[in-house]
Amino acid sequence: MQGTVSPPQVLGVGVYCKTMLGCQHYFIDSLMKCVRGEDDYNAQKNFTDELCGLARDQNIHIHLVHHIRKQSDDNRTPSKNDLKGSGSVADQVDNVILMHRNKSKERDFEANGVVDHSIPDAFLSFEKQRNGEWEGVAKLWFDRQSQQYVQEVGGLPTDYQPKSADHR
After folding, report:
1. CA-wise closest residue to 93 among 123, 124, 61
2. Is 120 exposed, middle or buried (0-12, 13-18, 19+ CB in 10 A)?
3. How far apart, in whole angstroms, are the C-alpha atoms of residue 58 and residue 149?
4. Measured distance CA(54)–CA(69) in Å, rounded
5. Which of 85, 118, 124, 128 has the most crowded Cβ, counting Cβ within 10 A?
6. Domain residue extents for the chain
7. Contact call for residues 66 and 83 (beta carbons, < 8 A)
8. Average of pLDDT values for 2-23?
C-alpha cells in the first residue's frame, strides 16, 4: 500500500500477510501515514497498542518507522526521547532502534571529495530491547555500489538476488 491508510487497513494487511503469505516481518512506513493528526497522541497510543497486540497474536515482527523531531544540531545523535508525538509509542514497543546518518561526514565529502573511512557513515542506536540484554550503538559504512550499509569498511553487502532462475 502507498499513501495514507487507516489503522484497521494496516492491521488487516498484517493479518493477511501472516496468515495467507506466511510473512514473519511486517514493515510499516510510517506512523504518520497511519495516524492523521501529528498531535493526536491518543490515536498514536491506540494504534501502537493494536500493533503490539497484532505482533503478539500473529507471532510476527512488526517494524514501524517513526520519525524524530527536527534537531537543532544534526550532528547530535538522537535518542528515543527525540521521537515525535506520544512517548507511549516507545513505551509500548519491545524494541526502539534509531538510524542516524553522519551528516557532517557527508558534508565533508561533498565539499572536499575526501573520505575518512575510519569514521562511520551512519549509526544504529539500540535504545530499547525489552527481551534483550544489550543496548548500544552499531557503526555502519555505506557501500555505494549496492546502496547498502555494511558493518565494516569494505564489508560485503548482502546479495538479495535469487541463486537460480527456478527460485521465484
Report:
1. 61
2. buried
3. 30
4. 27
5. 85
6. 1-80, 94-155
7. yes
8. 94
- In terms of C-beta density within 10 A (0-12 exposed, 13-18 middle, 19 or more buried), how is residue 19 classed? exposed
Categorize the per-residue pLDDT at 162 as very low, low, confident or very high, splitting at 50, 70 and 90: confident
Edge-first strand order for the sheet with 136-143 is 95-101, 122-129, 136-143, 148-150
pTM: 0.85
Q: How far is Cα 110 from Cα 120, in angstroms, rounded to an integer?
A: 16
- Supply the pLDDT for residue 74: 80
Section 89-115 average pLDDT:
93
Average pLDDT along the chain: 92
Q: Residue 32 is placed in which grid cell? A: 504518520
* Of 122, 115, 166, 124, the residue nearest 142 (C-alpha): 122
Count of Cβ atoms closer than 10 Å to residue 141 Cβ: 20
| Residues found in the chain | 168
Buried b (16+ CB within 10 A) or exposed e, 90-101: beebeebebebe
Strands (E) in the chain, as ranges, are 25-29, 61-65, 95-101, 122-129, 136-143, 148-150
